[in-house]
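for the record, two folds in this file. i put them one after another cuz i was lazy. first one right below, seq on top, structure tokens after. the second one comes after a little note so u can tell where it starts
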Amino acid sequence: MNTYEIKSLLVSTGDFIILLGQIRIIVSAIRRWNLNELSIRTKTTNSRRN
């Protein structure tokens, strides 16, 4: 392996790590949004019962 191949490998690895980080952020945001939706729904159903 020459230095160019090593550099390109490092760059692709860095891009992959960044992509993974972005996916994790998106997934956590979706989960949080789903939890908020669920809590809002349960609150509305509880208020209707009372």
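(here's the note) second protein begins now
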Amino acid sequence: MSHSLSLDAYWRETADFIAGLNGAARSVIVPTDMQSVLPNSTDYENSAAAPAADMVVLHKGEIERLGANWIVEAIRGMAPVYANAVFVVFSRLPIERLSEANPHVSSFRTMLQLEKQRAGAASKARQSIYLGNNRAITTTIYGHKFFVDTRDISLTPHLLIDGNWEPWVTDAFRQVVEPGMNVIDIGANMGHFALIAASLVGSEGHVYAFEANRDLAEIVHSNFSVNGFSGHGTVEAKAVFSSTRTLQIGFQKRYMGSSSIHATSKSAARQLDSVEMRDVPAVSLDDYFPAGKRIDLIKIDAEGSEPSILAGAERLLSENKDIQIFMEFSPVLFRHAYKTPDAFAAMIRERGFSIYRILADSSLELCTASTVFPVEQHWDVLLRRW
């Protein structure tokens, strides 16, 4: 994920802190996107070849990818000297240290400890087995059996190796889902979020999973079945859109999670991928669900179709005042419907929703009227009417 330091306050403030030391840190390990603004810095991937660092900048959202062992070794002999909701900076320099009681440091320590526990449990209990015909089965860190399509390189590697996907969003999602809820998962892919929701809502609730790629929809169905959730899980091999119709969708062969109505051979080629165009049945939420149907939570991952999906749910959204919506805020993909990020945010607020950005530690940050929405940057957000 690319971050613009000129737009993201957390990245900019962290870089400014290090720059303000006036070169005292001779060697700094940083995320790749921070290298361009910090002299004498090395990114995580090349840190093994770098001299012993004076300072390490750790992104909370990278904890699982970097691994607990790497982090522990990287910050050995160091103390926290700066922290915000996204980053913690560790240093061996003789500068003022932060208290371990600092909430941002404390949340980092908690996340690191959780990663240690997850990694330990994974090494002891998790296994993955190839079944043939592009199918494998694994177990997630949440204890679910999980079928995957081995041709995919967007989600499958993370699920097979880590047993998890987008942990910052997943943790925020798990904090919101409650027993008895009715949940809609749009763009369910192989069912990561749908399966978590089904395990949490229980038999008194229900999960409706929509996935336009029939191959993936069949995997969601299998994942519901093998975990005993078929009784309160419905899978629809359909797209969701502004109206009930037939859509032409570009299905990517390698990055299956990037398939969308906007996918083209040219865009896929940039990822060394190819696209197969297919006609797919689509339905609006207002057409699918009867008037008065209680819906508590919607998760949308539709690669730019989010505005159209919400347009087809006007009645459902008005009837369910306490509904919450997890979705991607990706202005690059929304530009076909809204010229600016602020225009889309205004549409959301007109419907009574507040916008909360999901941060790297899974906490929520309210986006106010003065929030500068990024033009090129992707955010994960939660919409709610409070």
